[in-house]
Amino acid sequence: MPANLPPQYAEAESKLKTAKTPQEKIKIYEELLAIMPKHKGTEKLQAQLKTKIAKLKEFSQKRPALAHHSPSYHIEKTGAGQVIVIGPPNSGKSMLIKALTGANPEVGEYPFTTRAAAPFMMKYKNLRIQLVDTPPLTPDDIESGFPELLKAGDALLVVVDLSVPEAASELETIQAKLKEKKVEFAAGGNPVPAENRPFLKKTVVAANKCDLDGTEETLRELDVFFGGKLPVCPTSAARGDGLEDLKKAIFSSLDIIRVYSKIPGKKADPNDPFALRKNSTILDMAKAVHKDFVDNFRYARAWRKNKPELQGVMVNRDFGLEDEDTVEIHI
Ligand SMILES: Nc1nc2c(ncn2[C@@H]2O[C@H](COP(=O)(O)OP(=O)(O)OP(=O)(O)O)[C@@H](O)[C@H]2O)c(=O)[nH]1
Ligand SMILES: [Mg+2]
């Protein structure tokens, strides 16, 4: 039986997309319930709305208790780099992490599903990159530990929901609010100098839910607002679109190179690179391998892919390294 919903219903429903807090959502759902004609054709829909309201109420009652011990925002770094995954409620952060890592963070159709920061490992090429899932970011309520997590991270991945027509302006608001907390999005190109790294973060934007109809216009708008400055990658965590391009953009946001360490007379292990910052030298590599290598350094030999003139050549400590170089340090 058709539901025959009045036009006010669609109007009220569209407000859901911009509702930030559970309280706002409850109000809208209650409004929808009031508008909805009560007959056989809407019974299922009525029940669904009631469940949503009940769950949101349950959640908002739990929140104050949680606020006493706000979640920990310290995540120990492991792997080649730490990327903090942030974004508005329900944008698909956790589902995207699930798709990128194969791990199982909690995904829910309700906002505020993720309550605490948690690390997951993404494989990319022969590296492991740490992705940190976080609770949703709402401009009016940035928890005190949150900016510290962002400052400690090596890069940011902002996940926005393309089915929200205001996604681009929402992202602008988040950007402005984070700037107040001394965290700024940095564009691609040159690596961020060490002294600016706590405050300026290479940022990738995942324009998620591109599988949904009518999201092209929002994507276009995001591209206009941010495309010139930040990599904007259309993705669908649900369907798997765009994941390889996103991984590539994340790797490139870390500004790292992979360098293989080799022992004289033996082959380097191609599965176990050192992750060094771009523009690193032989001395940085020596530091990464072992501190004794710095104190007792005599010389090194280097190999570069597709460079016949750089195959086992003797180099000094200032020699600049590139991605996939192999180095043998002599002490
Ligand atoms: N159609 C579609 N739905 C998605 C996609 N990604 C996530 N979703 C859905 O969006 C809802 C929210 O997903 P989550 O991954 O929990 O979102 P989140 O950003 O982690 O949410 P919070 O933890 O509450 O901030 C779920 O119902 C997902 O199934 C996508 O690419 N396409
Ligand atoms: Mg989540």
Q: Care to describe what's here?
A:
- This protein is α/β, with parallel strands linked by helices and 331 residues long.
- The protein is built from ten helices and twelve strands.
- Strands 1, 2, 3, 4, 5, 6 and 7 form a seven-stranded mixed beta sheet that branches. The protein has a five-stranded mixed beta sheet with strand order 9-8-12-10-11.
- Strand 6, helix 7 (216-227) and strand 7 (232-234) form a beta-alpha-beta unit.
- The chain binds guanosine-5'-triphosphate (GTP) and magnesium ion.
Strand content: 15-25%
Straight-line N-to-C gap: 82 Å
Element order: H for helix, E for strand: HHHEHEEHEHEEHEHEEHHEEE
Bound ligand species: guanosine-5'-triphosphate, magnesium ion
User: Mean of residue pLDDT?
Assistant: 92
Characterize the overall form: elongated
Low-confidence stretches: 64-68
What's the alpha carbon Rg, rounded to whole Å?
A: 24 Å
Q: Tally of extended strands?
A: 12
DSSP helix fraction: 25-40%
The number of helices is 10
Main sheet attributes: strand count, strand direction, barrel closure: 7 strands, mixed
Backbone structural class: alpha/beta
